[in-house]
C-alpha cells in the first residue's frame, strides 16, 4: 500500500485496529492480576473489552494490550485516555 499523496515514501500508513498498545504503565508497584483488573475497569468504560494482556516479563514490562470488539471503540478510548494519570504515570495508548 503506497502512502497518500504528499507523504514521504518511507512513511507507512497503518490502518486502525481494535487492539490498543499501552505504554508507560507502572511495573513495580502493582501485581499483574491487579494491573489487568484495573486496566479492564478503566478501558471497559468506553465499550466491551474482549481481552487485557499484561505480562511481567523484562521485555514487556510497563506495557499492555487492550482488545476491543471494534475499531471505533478502541479509537474513542485511545483519544480519551492519552496521557491519563494511571497509578501515578501518564499512560500512552496507541492503536496496534
TrEMBL record:
CDD domains: RRM1_U1A_like (cd12246). GO terms for molecular function: RNA binding. The keyword RNA-binding applies. Keywords: RNA-binding. It comes from the Eukaryota. Gene3D superfamilies: 3.30.70.330. Residues 18-91 form the RRM domain. The keyword Transmembrane does not apply. Pfam families: RRM_1. This is RRM domain-containing protein.
